[in-house]
Design a protein that fits this description.
Blueprint: E1 2-6, H1 11-15, H2 23-37, H3 48-68, H4 71-81, E2 85-87, E3 93-99
Antiparallel strand pairs: 1-3, 2-3
Helix pairs in contact: 2-3
Amino acid sequence: MALGRMEQKDWYKVLGAKPSDSPAELKRKYQKLALLYHPDKQAASAAAVEAEERTRRFQEIHQAWKVLGNEETKQEYDLQQRVPVKNLGDGKKTCITIYL
């Protein structure tokens, strides 16, 4: 058994979703955000910093969908969310993940 510490993103928040949302609702929210932030949909006149931020946001949205769009990984993520979050004193909350 290995213990690993990692800062956990709230993938539901990234998609603007709730854990109780249906798979179809999660997909709809993902598609809406993916179209909005897709690198190919950016204006050619957009500043480099803005384009980079939108690309980063698109990657984050895609990662959220990779986790929540698959029933198996969604269940695993939901279980991990139930693990108590510890504050290590530096102001950051850290989730402790246990691998069996």
